[in-house]
Automatic annotation (TrEMBL):
GO molecular function: ubiquitin protein ligase activity; zinc ion binding
Matching InterPro entries: BAH1, SPX_dom, Znf_C3HC4_RING-type, Znf_RING, Znf_RING/FYVE/PHD, Znf_RING_CS
Pfam families, A to Z: zf-C3HC4
EC number(s) per entry: 2.3.2.27
The organism of origin for this protein: Trifolium pratense
Residues annotated as transmembrane: none
SUPFAM superfamilies for this protein: RING/U-box (SSF57850)
Keywords on record: Metal-binding, Transferase, Ubl conjugation pathway, Zinc, Zinc-finger
Keyword Metal-binding appears in the UniProt entry: yes
Catalytic activity: S-ubiquitinyl-[E2 ubiquitin-conjugating enzyme]-L-cysteine + [acceptor protein]-L-lysine = [E2 ubiquitin-conjugating enzyme]-L-cysteine + N(6)-ubiquitinyl-[acceptor protein]-L-lysine
Main enzyme class: transferase
Lineage top rank: taxon: Eukaryota
Protein's UniProt name: RING-type E3 ubiquitin transferase
PROSITE patterns recorded: SPX, ZF_RING_1, ZF_RING_2
Amino acid sequence: VCDQKFFSELTKEASDIAGYFSSRVQHLLHLHIAKGLHRYVLRLRQCFKNDRETLVQEGRILIKYITMNAIAVRKILKKYDKVHSSMNGENFKSKMQAEHIELLHSPWLIELGAFYLNSSGLDGSELLDGVRGHFSCDFNVTNAVMTLILPDSIKLEYDLTCAICLDFVFNPYALSCGHFFCKSCACSAASVMTFQGLKAASPESKCPICREVFGEGGYFLRLCHSRSLSTTGALLS
């Protein structure tokens, strides 16, 4: 009963953190890659206010937020296993990954890394206030691998090769399972036309890699259009 209540509460907290993080990153990218009249208004505002620096600062805060929470969850689970002499904490980490609420495996973290690569004045590594260690983001053009070095010696590598066409992801979309593909490749795998989009796919459509149904009820409830990632590909290809 104790285990059930503890892990139930931790699951809720992790879900809330992941949801808040994704919503803030989406908002940040909406401002970063605005279109049409909104883009014109933002450009006009830059004559009077440095919105770019504001966005960069927001990115730093989000990196700090997700890193501190990920470290906290990891230490809580490690302490739980030590106190109870069990492996339930380790098993729970695997469950979090399976349910796509593991904080450092969110496609939005990749988006945030791409945003940093596309933002001027962010070369090399930098310190984040209140967090031990440095943050850095690097992209290997040859291998199409993005590397994030987070505080507390956390190193994450993301292969940005589309598993279908085996090229750098172009106009990428992340499915609810966390795997991402070129939009045209994902649509082809789901047997729909590119202009129709993935939401027109059959409820039985599955991820080409893990075979998980695209989204709850067959719809792409957590579909993520990786806009900053597209910009990164265009700049570095």
